[in-house]
Write a structure and sequence with these properties.
Blueprint (H helix, E strand, L loop, with lengths): L15 H8 L34 E7 L19 H10 E8 L6 H10 L13 E5 L5 E5 L31 H5 L4 E4 L11 H7 L4 H8 L1 H8 L2 E4 L14 E2 L13 E4 L1 H8 L30 H12 L5 E6 L17 H23 L7 E7 L4 E2 L4 E2 L11 E2 L4 E5 H9 L5 E3 L6 E4 L8 H11 L2 E3 L6 E3 L1 E5 L1 H6 L13 E5 L3 E4 L12 E4 L4 E2 L5 H4 E7 L7 E3 L4 E2 L3 H9 L29 H15 L4 H15 L6 H33 L6 H21 L2
Helix pairs in contact: 6-7, 9-10, 16-18, 16-19, 17-18, 17-19, 18-19
Length: about 700
């Protein structure tokens, strides 16, 4: 579901020969005969001081919101199957990993920032959702969006800690720093938290409360959104692109390891557009001026950008001295902009996928005209998570969407009034709040302890909730899993700010969206209703949600097409990119380099030595560390049993909590050891100690066996 859907507001294949052919053309016709826009000056394609490894001169990172490689309906080609310009480009020139895994909760902000940094959401201060609640000193709660600029702070709290907060109490490390230190300008278009996300605290954080930008935001918020949101360029120290004469401001990162002084940045269309499109407003790939949905003026369109818009920003930046670009593209299964949901194979869905495919055709042609190809460019393309479709069967039953459109008589998530059901079914009237979601974090008012009878009664009642499924007419269990702070720690969901930790998290049936009984959300019996404006859920623990994909192409990437064997985590994207680019972060990643998909010659020699043992170590590391790896899923099952247990003396619960705390302690210690071994081999030039690695592998396997036994 797109970033501006309800819960974010508070934010067959074409011929490969054709792709290869057009990459060798000069100025040739794009989709529907439209010429790709002329490239910018060749001399401006790369910043003169940008120094990257493996002969890479450009980095293009494209982040989709819920675009699927797998099919949601076996008869209907998947999203990527209907975008052959992209799918063939990646599979023909690199690798498409179809088993990349999300953190928990699987949500846009969590997932994108995990991919950007190689750290799980607990190290970003997020962990629970795109918006999160936190406890005030009196035990009540407030809400804060996770979509803010990188250095923004919590709103309305006395401590004013960073939204993106590490366990060390400092601002989480920013993803553009290694690039700018290497002399590369970094552009962002709609990429979570790399640019301004609002016209409130983001404006004052970057420009100051008394600035002209803040005055504009106060007087005309719609114009300020067009002028300042959604676009940014973070510049290298020697770059003139971000000079103060161009509207540049200091790129302030006070907690960055090693310091970060003397760097400048541009924010928003008002200042970025003159640098990347000096002839006038930025146009999309088909020549249409990009206008803001709120103001109607030229500027960033809002956070449901189409492929033609986001890719146009990428091309324009690459053509004008910004060789590293990150861009976000909205999902295709919602009616963007404006909302509403399509089912697989519906005509509107198909049209959006066709427009996305056309955009990638024009994009790759334009890049080829610029000399930007997989010979000199690292392409990374991925999706944050997979949405779970909630709807009835299509009509006709054999529709494929491509030749026979699908229609649906019933479509929409099941909105579930959580307070109403708890009261009517279980007699629970304890006041609480949630972040409304299909996997809602629950904050019990007053913040009773985990062992308090109020908390335990609430958890047991939640585990027993049922409701009639309007699609089947049958009663359905609403709670799949539950986790309180002991298990949340195992799942990397307890941040450095204890005030953000919920009483527990309910991972629900993925057909359901849990809310607090507002007028739109089943305010009275039977406490459930269909919402045809939203039909794609995520957040829960479910294979179709937690398994997504990662595509890579360029120097150092093996040309193996579809990779169905590698088990990857979103934490792996960052270290894999850094290893290929010859860069390093000033922290230890919680993922690993995806050796299976990279050429040995593109990596340090320490990754060739003891390669087989290194791979085994990396693979078992995923299973003990990923929230949806073997250990995470086993402990979550045990946690659910403990929280639902109904012993008079709570013996099962107490025993389970103690066991989970022991598992967390063992895992954290072992993960730190293995992560250090991997980091040393990947980035610090130290060959793997074979004996120590094999001991760590054996310890990890024993820990996994222990977790599996506890889940029985």
């Amino acid at each position: 579901m797109s970033r501006t859907s309800r819960w974010l507001i508070l934010r067959v294949a074409a011929s490969l020969l054709f792709v290869v052919a057009f990459l060798n053309l000069g100025q040739s016709a794009g989709p529907q005969g439209i010429l790709a826009p002329a490239p910018g000056p060749a001399a401006a394609l790369a910043a003169s001081g940008c120094s990257l490894g493996n002969g890479i001169q450009h980095v293009i990172y494209i982040q989709f919101d819920n675009l699927h490689l797998s099919r949601d309906n076996p008869n209907v080609p998947s999203d990527l199957e209907q975008m052959p310009h992209l799918l063939n480009y990646i599979e023909g020139n690199g690798v498409m990993i179809n088993h990349e895994h999300t953190p928990l909760i699987a949500h846009t902000a969590n997932d994108i920032i995990t991919s950007l940094t190689g750290l799980y959401p607990d190290e970003q201060g997020l962990a629970v959702a795109n918006s999160f609640r936190y406890y005030n000193p009196d035990g009540s709660t407030r809400s804060n969006s996770a979509f803010v600029y990188w250095t923004d702070r919590l709103n309305g709290t006395a401590d004013q800690s960073y939204v993106l907060l590490g366990h060390d109490g400092k601002n989480a490390p920013a993803p553009w720093v290694p690039y700018t230190r290497a002399g590369c300008n970094v552009g962002a278009a709609g990429m979570a938290d790399m640019e301004l996300e609002n016209t409130g605290t983001d404006i004052t954080t970057v420009f100051g409360s008394g600035s002209p930008e803040a005055t504009e935001a106060h007087n005309n918020g719609a114009l300020a959104a067009a002028d300042f949101e959604g676009l940014a360029v973070h510049c290298a120290q020697d770059s003139t692109v971000c000079s103060s004469g161009n509207g540049g401001v200091s790129d302030v990162l006070p907690d960055e390891s090693g310091g970060y002084n003397g760097y400048m940045a541009l924010f928003g269309n008002k200042f970025v557009q003159p640098q990347i499109s000096p002839g006038g407003p930025v146009t999309d790939l088909f020549g249409n001026v990009i206008t803001n949905a709120g103001s109607g003026t030229a500027g960033y369109p809002g956070f449901d950008p189409t492929a033609a818009q986001s890719l146009a920003y990428v091309a324009a930046m690459q053509e004008h001295g910004v060789p590293v670009t990150y861009a976000y593209i909205a999902d295709a299964h919602d009616a963007n902009p404006g909302g509403g949901a399509y089912g697989p194979g519906e005509a509107g869905y198909e049209q959006q996928l066709k427009s996305y495919d056309d955009a990638f055709g024009a994009f790759f042609q334009r890049l080829a005209n610029d000399g930007i190809t997989t010979n000199n460019t690292l392409f990374v393309v991925t999706a944050d998570e997979n949405d779970h479709f909630v709807g009835g069967p299509p009509s006709p039953a054999n529709c494929d969407g491509v030749t026979v459109p699908c229609t649906y008589s019933q479509i929409g998530e099941i909105d579930t009034n959580l307070p109403g059901l708890l009261s009517s079914e279980q007699g629970i009237t304890t006041p609480f709040t949630v972040h409304e979601d299909s996997a809602p974090p629950v904050y019990i008012t007053g913040r009773p302890a985990a062992t308090d009878p109020t908390t335990r009664d609430f958890e047991r009642a939640t585990g027993q909730l049922t409701a009639t499924d309007p699609y089947t007419g049958q009663p359905e269990q609403l709670t799949d899993f539950m986790a309180d702070p002991a298990e949340l720690s195992v799942l990397h969901m307890v941040t450095g700010d204890p005030n953000r930790t919920p009483s527990f998290v309910l991972f629900g049936n993925p057909n359901n969206f849990f809310c607090m009984g507002e007028s739109w959300c089943s305010p009275s019996s039977p406490y459930t209703t269909l919402d045809d404006g939203a039909a794609w859920n995520h957040g829960d623990v479910s294979p179709d949600i937690n398994t997504t994909w990662l595509g890579m192409a360029g120097p150092g990437v093996r040309r193996i097409g579809l990779d169905s064997s590698t088990w990857a985590s979103e934490t792996d994207t960052r270290p894999t990119m850094m290893a290929l680019l010859g860069l390093h972060d000033d922290y230890t990643h919680e993922g690993r380099v995806l050796l299976e998909d990279l050429n040995n010659g593109a990596l340090p020699s320490t990754l060739s030595a003891h390669r087989e043992t290194l791979l085994r170590l990396a693979q078992v590391y995923e299973q003990i560390n990923s929230p949806v790896g073997q250990l995470g899923l086993a402990t979550l099952s045990a946690s659910t049993q403990g929280l639902e247990s109904n012993n008079t003396d709570d013996a099962t619960y107490t025993q389970t909590e103690s066991w989970l705390q022991g598992i967390a302690s063992q895992r954290n210690s072992l993960a730190a050891t293995i992560g250090g071994m991997l980091e040393d081999a990947e980035f610090n030039g130290q060959a793997l100690n074979e004996q120590a690695a094999k001991q760590a592998i054996a310890q990890a396997q024993a820990l996994l066996a222990q977790a599996d036994a506890g889940a029985q």
